[in-house]
Design brief:
The protein is α+β, with helices and mostly antiparallel strands. The chain has helices at 8-19, 27-38, 54-78, 103-108, 113-125, 133-142, 159-176, 186-191, 215-223; strands spanning 44-47, 84-87, 96-100, 128-130, 149-152, 207-210. The protein has nine helices and six strands, in the order H-H-E-H-E-E-H-H-E-H-E-H-H-E-H. The strands form two sheets. The protein has a four-stranded antiparallel beta sheet. It has a two-stranded parallel sheet with strand order 5-6. The protein is globular.
Length: 224
């Protein structure tokens, strides 16, 4: 059984705002609420749409999804953890995924052993971004379009900022293409096969301004 993490401040806040107001009506409902808060969040990620290997990574995850569907029933009967490998239903183009694979399967099932290494490799490249699903939603709701100017007032450590930049670059790419018309140097052309999104940026294509009040946290932002 998972340990329940509580504090006096936690109990005071939720008792005042949920129990005393009647939103939570009895002790059983309160215990169910606490159980929900203590349940581990699913492992989720989003794929950088303008990465040159974004389509490849999505195809790999889709293949693992098909494999997961064939073994899901066996896992449900013999393990305490569920095997969940599927796209997030609200993320366009299957660019967001839930990837929860029990450790026993990663260790013993040869079909899933390469998955862990693949996730690490493409996270290091920047194609995969590990992020809680609830944290992805604000940028999705923001609805960033081509040419938008975005201000992130609490940007560090930078996951949402990276998501905003990615969405802006993808929107500009879909509206205006690659932008090679104004850049034709030998160096740029030699890199063309490595780039999927825009490579010619101008004022009309908007920007993301990332700000944080803490100098220490800003260091994390720069790293991201």
């Amino acid at each position: 059984e998972r340990p329940r993490r509580r504090s006096d401040a936690f109990n005071a806040f939720y008792t005042e705002n949920l129990r005393e107001t009647g939103l939570i009506k009895d002790a059983d409902e309160w215990e169910a609420f606490i159980d929900c808060l203590n349940r581990p969040l699913p492992s989720t990620l989003w794929i950088t749409p303008t990465a040159h290997d974004a389509t490849e990574v999505r195809a790999i995850l889709q293949e693992y999804q098909r494999t997961a569907e064939t073994v899901a029933q066996t896992v449900a009967e013999n393990a305490d953890e569920d095997l969940q490998l599927r796209p997030l239903c609200w993320m366009p183009d299957e660019m967001g995924w839930r990837v929860d694979v029990p450790k026993a399967i990663l260790r013993k099932d040869p079909r899933f052993k390469p998955l862990h290494a693949m996730l690490i490799e493409h996270t290091a490249k920047g194609t995969i971004n590990r992020m809680e699903e609830v944290s992805m939603l604000p940028v999705a709701v923001l609805g960033i379009g081509a040419g938008h100017c975005c201000l992130d007032m609490c940007a560090s450590p930078g996951n949402k900022t990276a998501q905003m930049l990615s969405n802006l670059a993808d929107a500009n790419f879909k509206r205006w293409g690659r932008g090679l018309e104004a850049i034709s140097t030998k160096e740029v052309l030699s890199c063309q096969h490595l780039l999927h999104g825009r490579i010619d940026y101008s004022k009309r294509e908007g920007c993301v301004i990332a700000n944080d009040i803490s100098v220490e946290r800003s260091g994390m932002l720069v790293h991201q």
